[in-house]
Amino acid sequence: MSSPPICAGNITSGCTTWVKHLETLTDRLAATGCGDITVLHGGMKARDRQALAEKMSTRTDDQPPLLLVGTGSFIGEGFDCPALDTLFLAAPVSFKGRLVQYVGRITRPHPGKTTATVHDYHDILTPVIASSLPKRAPGYTSLGFPDPRKVLN
After folding, report:
1. 94 neighbors 122 (Cβ within 8 angstroms)
2. pTM, whole model, 2 decimals?
3. Burial class (CB within 10 angstroms; exposed 0-12, middle 13-18, buried 19+) of 54
4. Angle subtended by helix axes 96-104 and 127-142, to nearest 10
5. Which pLDDT tens digit goes with each residue over 62-79?
6. In this structure, how many other beta carbons lie within 10 angstroms of the beta carbon of residue 55?
7. Which residues contact 107 (CB under 8 A, 6 or more apart)?
8. Domain ranges within the chain, ordered by starting residue
9. How far is CA 40 from CA 18, 33, 72, 98, 124, in A?
10. 131 Cβ partners below 8 Å, 6+ apart?
11. I need a surface site. Which of 35, 52, 72, 120 has the fewest CB within 10 A?
12. Which of 98, 86, 89 minimizes the C-alpha distance to 138?
C-alpha cells in the first residue's frame, strides 16, 4: 500500500496557527495511515523539543517519510531541518516576512533534495483566507515561486 500524497515528501511540514487546529489535523492525518507524525508547538516541554530535534537530525534518507505538524511560531522561527521538502500552509498567512520564514524551511539545500513544494489553500468563500492570498503573493514571487494569483486564473 502506498503512502497518501501528503506523505510523499521525505519530511513534510504542516503549519497552522492554533494548537486546537494542530490537534485536529494530527488526529485526521493519523487516520490516513501516514505513519510517523511528529507534533511541534509551544506547549511542549523543552526536553520533548530537544528529543524532536535529535530525531530530525539523525534521520536518514532510507527511512519512511516523516510528517511534522506544528504551529507557525515554532516551525517558522528557529527551527532548522534542511531535509524538509514539502510545506502545507493550513492557516492564513498575509505577512510576507512570515511566509518567507515558513517557505525558507523547505528551500534550504540538503543532499538528495531536488524540489521544494508548497501547498497553499485559497478559499474564496472564507473572507480571511481569501483576503490573505493577494497579501502573500509578492512573497512567493520574491522567493522564485509562481504568482499564485496567476496560477488560479
Report:
1. no
2. 0.77
3. exposed
4. 60
5. 777 778 888 777 777 767
6. 14
7. 116, 143
8. 5-152
9. 12, 19, 9, 17, 29
10. 94
11. 35
12. 98
Identify which of 107, 113, 91, 111 has the alpha carbon closest to the alpha carbon of residue 140.
Answer: 107
Among residues 52, 42, 45, the alpha carbon closest in space to that of 18 is found at: 42
28-54 per-position pLDDT tens digit? 888 887 767 888 877 778 788 777 777
For 63, other C-beta atoms within 10 Å of its C-beta total: 11
HSE-CB at 61 with a 13 A cutoff on CA atoms is: 7
Please answer whether residues 85 and 117 qualify as being in contact, where contact means their C-beta atoms are separated by less than 8 angstroms. Answer: yes
Q: Please write the tens of the pLDDT for every residue from 8-19.
A: 556 677 778 888
Q: Characterize 11-31 residue by residue with b for buried, 16 or more Cβ atoms within 10 angstroms of its Cβ, and e for exposed.
A: bbbbbbeeeeebeebbeebee
Under CATH, which architecture does the 5-152 domain have?
Answer: 3-Layer(aba) Sandwich (3.40)
Which residue matches cell numbers 485526521? 28
SS3 5: helix
**Residue of 85, 87, 91 lying closest to 129 (CA atoms):** 91
